[in-house]
UniProtKB/TrEMBL annotation:
Record protein name field: Tubulin polyglutamylase TTLL11-like
Presence of the UniProt keyword Ligase in the record: yes
Organism: Cyprinus carpio
Superkingdom assignment: Eukaryota
Keywords noted in UniProt: ATP-binding, Ligase, Nucleotide-binding
Residue numbers spanned by region Disordered: 18-101, 130-150, 671-722
GO molecular function terms listed in the Swiss-Prot or TrEMBL record: ATP binding; tubulin binding; tubulin-glutamic acid ligase activity
Length: 722
């Protein structure tokens, strides 16, 4: 009875808050001061503060305390006289009290003032000993009235504690059991479909992200880009998809060993839907594959294994970086300046038949190594089995390593990977939220797992749709009895990522960003991690973050030429026709051929039908779980590559595809705007000598052959592991 009473009491309190918001037009929730931790403060001080905040939490909080918090948030707070005094102070005393902010990953200091929400406002200039802050003409204008942002945390799951801390620091409103009226932000723990009844606001998951980041789909997306841009995408290991490519894998490995009997390559096998290191193992021969033994044939990816990773303290480690995809259209990507380094717990040795099964030596997964007797939980950021990435960078810098080059390579890897994912994500997005249908906007935090080779080249291991946001770890107090203990390293990194993601998704800030963002990108031609790279962020109105750095569209000019497959996906979406579908039917494919004027005397509509049936049937066999009939995006891309190879035979595949895109886009644009001349894109590579002579109707084109059987590469391998 008491639980029911308390629940009803909270619901009534929430309804009262909604009424108060509507009635109190002149009232304001004043931004109370939040203790932000400057980045230059020692890790010990941050650890003490975070430990006190974690220890202050209790999983058995009384409902009366929760009600008291609701009343405190709902009622108008009294301004802090000390804060007012600080804001009104002038002259040298004001300047001297401002903290110096050390940006991690760079070698610079920003002079700034810590605002009430924890954001450090960068000083624009100093005049007569006074700092003039952008956007703050006086203290009264800074206290602009606004409604508190509401966050539904009822589906947050494992990220709940870090999310609660972030909301408290921002002085926003949390609704832990949901809300009858719409919230500004919905925080889901697993997928976009955790809550099916959202028609407005923002959700922290994209439709289809879980599916796209499974091992097989990620490999297919990156392999498509490797066909077009092999040099740009050499950060992802050579991979084979099982069981469909088992024969290809066996043949290539046999040929490799026949050519050089001294070679003893090692491969890593990852289950398609596995996580936390479950089911991963190493092999040296295709006969050792477990996924093809017995009656059950499991889908998996097998990849080259890196035999010479960078070691620290003789231990192998990987890097977990958090990446925010703020939107797909326009594409916006942010990277956290701080990450985690997860260490193995057994000294590394190159793979041999004797140590292939030593998971604590070869696999860096935290969920595996935490069960090792050698795992070290540390309160320090630079020791133990889990450390901050910045501590690794500082250690490398002390040995003369150019950490700016390391960072720029990692940023490029992240941008290229997201560009590879975007085409199919747009198909998923349109299927769930068709144009014209009410629905939320989406954003998502991804976990990139990256391995540094001995030569400091970053290698992509995998991308996690739901990276762990736990800020505590299990501690066994007695046999079989565990308790959750705060993890200062996790809290330092993860709370900042969630908090600053919320800042960037603040509805008021998004409106300002939408009106001010031209999407033109930066005039920079290279990724530069230097003192001036964040200065404009610190002065912008689009709520810049202390720990999230925008990398796209900032570096649009450097990477825009890679978005070729995205243009193919735009044509695919145009001809889908039926809202909510993700497959192209035969009639729609014929319409595509006809409207783009791709048929001629040697490639008739009957040939187009045969092409459609051939490719669609083969892809249906590779996607056994699909319940929808028709041509998927990957099959359409293969058909597009085939058509490009037919039309422009004497050119490399990339130029063939770009030229065919010009043909299709020109024809479609001419239909929509017949009075306008055809436009040419600056990033294409037109070749006046390209031949458009027709070829006999055959479906074994060079492009199709490359997709079915990739050549064996004997160069230095980029290998991977989870």
């Amino acid at each position: 009875m008491s639980d029911h009473y308390e629940r009803v009491k909270i619901e009534l309190q929430q309804m009262k808050e909604v009424e108060n918001e509507a009635a109190a037009d002149g009232e304001q929730l004043s931004p109370a001061s939040v203790s932000s931790i400057p980045a230059e403060v020692s890790f010990t001080a941050r650890r003490d503060l975070s430990r006190s905040s974690v220890n202050g939490r209790s999983r058995s909080k009384s409902r009366s305390k929760a009600d008291g918090h609701e009343r405190q948030v709902n009622d108008k707070e009294l301004p802090d006289p000390t804060a007012q005094k600080s804001n009104s102070s002038q002259g040298q005393s004001r300047v001297s009290n401002e903290p110096n902010l050390h940006i991690k990953g760079t070698a610079r200091l920003l002079k700034g003032k810590t605002a009430a929400n924890g954001h450090v406002e960068t000083c624009v200039r100093q005049t007569d000993g006074k700092c003039e802050h952008h956007g703050k003409e006086d203290g009264s204008k800074a206290a602009k009235k606004r409604r508190a942002v509401t966050v539904d945390t009822s589906k947050a799951k494992t990220s709940l504690e870090a999310l609660k801390m972030s909301i408290r620091q921002l002085k926003w409103k949390e609704f832990p059991i949901g809300r009858r009226t719409a919230c500004d932000i919905y925080w889901h723990g697993v997928s976009f479909h955790d809550n099916e009844n959202i028609v407005s606001g923002q959700v922290n998951k994209f439709p289809g992200m879980i599916e796209m980041l499974r091992k097989i789909n990620l490999s297919r997306a990156v392999r498509t880009m490797q066909e077009l841009f092999p040099e740009e995408y050499n950060f992802y290991p050579r991979s084979w998809i099982l069981p469909e490519e088992y024969q290809l894998f066996s043949t290539q490995i046999r040929l490799l060993k026949d050519n050089d009997s001294t070679l003893k390559p090692t491969y890593i096998v990852k289950p398609d839907s596995g996580s936390q290191g479950d089911g991963i193992y190493l092999i040296r021969d295709p006969a050792d594959l477990r996924v093809i033994s017995g009656a059950q044939i499991k889908q998996a990816v097998v990849q080259d294994y890196i035999q010479k990773p960078l070691l620290i303290d003789k231990l192998k480690f990987d890097i977990r970086l958090y990446v925010l995809v703020r939107s797909l259209e326009p594409l916006e990507i942010y990277i956290a300046k701080e990450g985690l380094s997860r260490f193995c717990t057994e000294p590394y040795q190159e793979p041999s038949q004797k140590n292939l099964s030593h998971v604590f030596m070869h696999l860096t997964n935290y969920s595996l190594n935490v069960h090792s007797g050698n795992f070290v939980h540390s309160d320090s950021c630079s020791t133990g089995s889990k450390r901050t990435f910045s501590s690794i960078l500082y250690r490398l810098a002390s040995k003369g390593v150019d950490i700016k080059k390391v960072w720029s390579d990692i940023i490029a890897l992240v941008i290229k990977t997201v560009i590879a994912l975007v085409p199919e994500l747009k198909v998923y997005y349109q299927a769930d939220i068709p144009p014209g249908k009410p629905g939320p906007t989406c954003f998502q935090i991804l976990g990139f797992d990256i391995l540094l080779m001995k030569n400091l080249k970053p290698i992509l291991l995998e991308v996690n749709a739901n990276p762990s946001m736990r800020i505590e770890h299990e501690h066994e107090v007695s046999p079989g009895v565990f308790e959750y203990v705060p993890s200062p390293v996790d809290e330092e990194v993860k709370v900042g990522v969630i908090r600053d993601t919320l800042r960037l998704m603040d509805p008021a800030q998004r409106k300002q960003h939408a009106t001010s963002n031209t999407g033109g990108g930066s005039p920079e031609e290279a990724i530069v991690v230097e003192t001036g790279s964040d200065e404009k962020e610190g002065m912008a109105d689009s709520l810049p973050s202390l720990c999230l750095k925008q990398v796209f569209p900032k570096y649009t000019k450097q990477f825009h030429y890679l978005r070729v497959v995205e243009r193919i996906a735009a044509i695919f979406l145009r001809f889908l026709g039926v809202k909510g579908t993700m497959r192209l039917g035969p009639t729609s494919f014929r319409t595509f051929i006809r409207n783009c004027k791709l048929s001629n005397s040697s490639f008739s509509m009957a040939s187009a039908d045969i092409l459609y049936i051939d490719i669609t049937r083969r892809w249906a066999g590779m996607l056994p779980d699909s319940r929808e009939a028709g041509m998927c995006l990957q099959a359409f891309i293969e058909a597009f590559f085939y058509l490009a190879a037919r039309r422009f035979k004497a050119l490399p595949l990339r130029e063939q595809v770009v030229l065919l895109l010009e043909v299709c886009e020109g024809a479609l644009e001419g239909q929509s705007h017949s009075e306008k001349p055809r436009t040419h894109r600056s990033h294409t590579h037109p070749n006046p000598a390209s031949s458009q002579t027709s070829a006999p109707t055959t479906f074994s084109s060079p492009a199709l052959t490359r997709r079915r059987q990739r050549p064996l590469q004997l160069s230095a391998k980029a290998n991977t592991e989870n």
